[in-house]
Each structure stands twice: as structure tokens, then as C-alpha cells.
């Protein structure tokens, strides 16, 4: 049972697009808003990390080649932050095969080559959002299971403690 549709975005699907090119950001924003996604833009890696820290998106579209901090470093920092939930990262690159391998090894979940093919971009976005929703659902089920076990253990322990006290009082002759 999947609560999330396969082809339509959830109303809460927020995507952070990171690129040092205003033209590329405008293109990504236009394409993704047209599909119903909520888009946030960042013009460099530092700004992206700040925005992610404040309000983690459901997906990050990340240009690899940027000044100051490249997409590999941004990916590495996102993955090394234990406070963040799982956030899929789609690298956008004009680089060759070895850099794609490097990006995936750093923790990126997928990549797409420039120039971006619109249908492929949208398909990869949908795919990574399905992954995100599945991971979030799994984590919520695990949290609920832990809560259930904790309550069950407490509920079972309470009558046993009371029975043990009564037995101790009986052994001491306190109950007559």
C-alpha cells in the first residue's frame, strides 16, 4: 500500500536546486514548478547547506561544477551531518564517467548529464522522491514499532511489579 502517487508530486515535495548559473536555476525552477513541486533555489554550496540545515528539502538537485564549494563537497557535507534526515541528491554534471563514480561514492543517489533532457530529469526526480517517501515511511514504521514495544513493556511490567510487591508483603506477614 503506497500512500504516494507514482506520477504526481505530493503537496509537501520541496526540492532545492543548487547551481551557480542563474539561467540553469531559472530553467529548473520553471520546469519543476510546472509539475507542481515547491522549489527553493541556492546559488552556491554554502547557501545550499544553510537552507538544508534550516529546512531540509525532500530532494536536492545539485550542480557539480561550482566555485568555492563544488557539488561533491556539498554532497559529502550533507551525508556527514547526522542531524539531517535522508535527502536524495541528484547530481547534474557535464563531467565524464570518473566524476560520476566519485559523486556516487560521496553519497549522491543519482546523476544526470548536461544538457539536461527534460523527460529524463522529471523521471529521475519522480524516482528519487518515491525513494524518499519509502525511506520516510520505513523510518516512521520503525519509530511506531519502538514506541509500541516500549509501551507494551511498560504495561507488562506494571502488573508484575505490583504482584511482586504483594508477594513480598505476604512473605513478610504484613498482609495478615
What is this structure, in a nutshell?
The protein is an alpha/beta fold. 55% of the residues lie in helices and 14% in strands.
Structure description:
There is one protein chain. The protein is 55% helix and 14% strand. It is of the alpha/beta class. The chain has a domain of 123 residues: Response regulator (Rossmann fold), CATH 3.40.50. Strands 2-1-3-4-5 form a five-stranded parallel beta sheet, sandwiched between helices. Strand 1, helix 1 and strand 2 form a beta-alpha-beta unit. The radius of gyration is 24 Å and the shape is elongated. The N terminus is likely disordered.
Average pLDDT: 88
Which strand order spans the largest sheet, edge to edge or round the barrel?
Answer: 2-1-3-4-5
Helical run tally: 5
**Helix amount:** 55-70%
| Cα-atom radius of gyration | 24 Å
Number of strands: 5
Query: How are helices and strands ordered from N to C?
Result: EHEHEHEHEH
Share of residues in strands: 5-15%
Q: Termini distance?
A: 59 Å
Could you name the CATH topology of the domain at 14-136?
Answer: Rossmann fold
Unreliable spans: 1-7
- The shape is elongated
Please summarize the sheet with the most strands: 5 strands, parallel
CATH class bucket of the domain at 14-136 = Alpha Beta
Structural classification:
alpha/beta
In CATH, the homologous superfamily of the domain at 14-136 goes by the name Response regulator
Q: From the 3D coordinates, which CATH architecture of the domain at 14-136 would you assign?
A: 3-Layer(aba) Sandwich
Amino acid at each position: 500500500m503506497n500512500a504516494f502517487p507514482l506520477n504526481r508530486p505530493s503537496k509537501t515535495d520541496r526540492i532545492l536546486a543548487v547551481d551557480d548559473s542563474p539561467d540553469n536555476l531559472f530553467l529548473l525552477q520553471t520546469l519543476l514548478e510546472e509539475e507542481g513541486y515547491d522549489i527553493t533555489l541556492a546559488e552556491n554550496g554554502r547557501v545550499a547547506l544553510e537552507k538544508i540545515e534550516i529546512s531540509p528539502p525532500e530532494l536536492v538537485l545539485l550542480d557539480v561544477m561550482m566555485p568555492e564549494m563544488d557539488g561533491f563537497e556539498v554532497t559529502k557535507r550533507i551525508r556527514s551531518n547526522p542531524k539531517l534526515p535522508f535527502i536524495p541528491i541528484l547530481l547534474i554534471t557535464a563531467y565524464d564517467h570518473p566524476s560520476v563514480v566519485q559523486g556516487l561514492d560521496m553519497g549522491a543517489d543519482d546523476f544526470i548529464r548536461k544538457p539536461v533532457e527534460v523527460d529524463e530529469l522529471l523521471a529521475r526526480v519522480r524516482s528519487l522522491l518515491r525513494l524518499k517517501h519509502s525511506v520516510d515511511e520505513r523510518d516512521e514504521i520503525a519509530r511506531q514499532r519502538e514506541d509500541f514495544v516500549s509501551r507494551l513493556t511498560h504495561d507488562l511490567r506494571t502488573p508484575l511489579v505490583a504482584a511482586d510487591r504483594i508477594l513480598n508483603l505476604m512473605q513478610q506477614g504484613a498482609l495478615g
